[in-house]
Amino acid sequence: MNFEYAAAPESRSVVKIDPEYGHFINGKWVKGSTHFNSINPATEEVLSRIALGTASDVDAAVKTARNAFDKSWSKLSGRERGKYLFRIARIMQERAREFAVLETLDNGKPIRESRDVDVPLSAAHFFYHAGWADKLEYAGLETTTAPHGVVGQIIPWNFPLLMLAWKVAPALATGNTVVLKPAETTSLTALLFAQVCQQAGLPEGVVNIVTGDGSTGAAIVNHPGIDKIAFTGSTDVGKLIARAVAPTNKSLTLELGGKGANIVFGDAAIDETVEGIVNGIFFNQGHVCCAGSRLILQESIADEVLEKLKRRMEKIRVGDPLDKNTDLGAINSAEQLAKIHELTAAGDAEGANRWTPSCALPDKGFWFAPTIFTGVTQAHRIAREEIFGPVLSVLTFRTPAEAIEKANNTPFGLSAGIWSEKGSNILWASQQLRAGVIWANTFNKFDPASPFGGYKESGWGREGGRHGLSAYLKGSAK
Ligand code: NDP
């Protein structure tokens, strides 16, 4: 018998969204000169008007961050800085529901994920780094324990609050002050975070948030008063930033794109593996830099895995992100949806076989059904380029050496997964794979204590753990 789920929508009454927002500079709200709409991608409803930061807004933010660094933040002991971080973490926990609903409205991700992943992990990043603030000299770092000064941080739209936490928490713990720009389509939780900074009594100017588009990001990158840039986003923009920063003394970390290989050996536990494959590519609509977007299956079990995967995909519930039953929410923007359509059409044109479960998509908003392509070869665009959507490209292999060769045959090197019952297989394969993060018999697991970052065109530097602290201290590589 088939049971239908009754709708279980989370109430949005817990959030208050202003019709218009300014920038958060020097602990105060500063009016913007022009604004753009922030919409709910699940309904296309306009949620608010966001200020478009100009070069002079960025300049004001950098000056106030410098002033806060010189006059207050750099004078505090690590212990005192840690107290503020603990306070921020606790307030984020207290306001967790508000953050989760707002993130889901603004980003389109299911409430189940914003509530159970994004928000708790964001608070965990502040707790973790609060603990390091007074222990930097005992962390065994290869850098000094002196902060860079003013840090410019630019983040993408796929995990808006979590990426903010990954950036702001280590920067503050190590004694830097911050000018942060959220992504154009997802500024709202960063603006709510600004309220948390006020509530925590954080000294004015320590965290500044300037909203805007790529031009605002470029103004941060090119501002001479910035000592370090921390960027997460696409490889193309990462390359532009690397070029802009190269002739300067600015320090730089880049967390860029990926095309993660999820390798399944013939001896893997198939049912668990199928769950891992689903989590690897359909979590957060596949808008995940480290998604397991290339499934590399040993031929001997390929048919069985694909049959079970398709059966499992029939159960993925696509729809209202605020419904607690929803597994797959909306695509973040019309632009991203167009990119997914373009790449999947290339998959069809190049001869791969597309399969989607029989799921109805809402009429309004931006949606894409979970999709797999079989018969994919290394030369196909869908095997080489990041789709950044709920689309899985399936390749097969006969020998372990072939699996590794296929997995490493990519300009990226961010993540990989290995599924096998044999420890020796896992250890061997993980030594051959060129990826910054490798999961074994699991996928998409994150922890603030664990460093995250890539090889090759996936960027440089690490975030999280002790390694992530180093990036915010003088003496770090570039
Ligand atoms: P983009 O690179 O387009 O944007 C990232 C951020 O940079 C946004 O805030 C964007 O502003 C800003 N930006 C755009 N142009 C410039 C510029 N010339 N100078 C400075 N800043 C600029 O990426 P997306 O937002 O589309 O994010 C998706 C990409 O991010 C994917 O490729 C994904 O793999 C990668 N990513 C990597 C992660 C990692 O940890 N390695 C994690 C998450 C995502 P605006 O939004 O206004 O355009």
UniProtKB/TrEMBL annotation:
It holds the Pfam family Aldedh. GO terms for molecular function: oxidoreductase activity, acting on the aldehyde or oxo group of donors, NAD or NADP as acceptor. Gene3D superfamilies: Aldehyde Dehydrogenase, Chain A, domain 1, Aldehyde Dehydrogenase, Chain A, domain 2. Residues 29-474 form the Aldehyde dehydrogenase domain. Keywords: Oxidoreductase. Belongs to the aldehyde dehydrogenase family. This is Betaine-aldehyde dehydrogenase.
